[in-house]
């Protein structure tokens, strides 16, 4: 069956929408479908509105209920995080970084005192112990945190260091 794009008949619309021609007539009488003389596009838009509740008229429109549910979830998540932080079950990243840095400073200070504790007046031994500890600390300070933890903070590939 060939369909007239300018003014499709009831039987043609019925074939396109796979419904009865009588049902098309009933929808027209209820004002849900355009009257005779409307284009195929107008009929398709009306059909989509009937079938999908107006979603086809504006596919970009946000469902108000979904948007409210998303907002409520975000607010609940934020409140839960605030409560966990107050109960000291969760710490912020800046607080954790500061705590980690403080521990590292304490460790370095303790390691730098090992030479004096071990040597007990033996200057050659103290110099050797201090030199080894400084070598280890230098090696550790040059190690990249991302390499030690198996990757960076983001999912990007690690950068290759300049080579020959």
What's the gist of this structure?
This protein has 164 residues and is mainly alpha-helical. It is 63% helix and 0% strand.
How would you sum up this structure, described in words?
With 164 residues, the chain is an all-alpha fold. It has helices at residues 10-17, 21-29, 40-52, 64-86, 93-112, 114-119, 123-142, 145-148. It is rod-shaped, with a radius of gyration of 37 Å. The relative contact order is 0.04. The mean pLDDT is 80.
- In angstroms, what separates the terminal alpha carbons? 72 Å
DSSP, total strands: 0
Work out the helix count. 8
What portion of residues belong to β-strands?
under 5%
Counting copies of identical and different chains, the oligomeric state is single chain
* Main β-sheet description: none
Helix content: 55-70%
The run of helices and strands is HHHHHHHH
Mean pLDDT: 80
Q: Measured on Cα atoms, how large is the radius of gyration?
A: 37 Å
What sort of overall outline do the alpha carbons produce when their principal axes are compared? rod-shaped
Low-confidence parts = none
- Could you say which structural class the secondary elements and strand pairing correspond to? mainly alpha
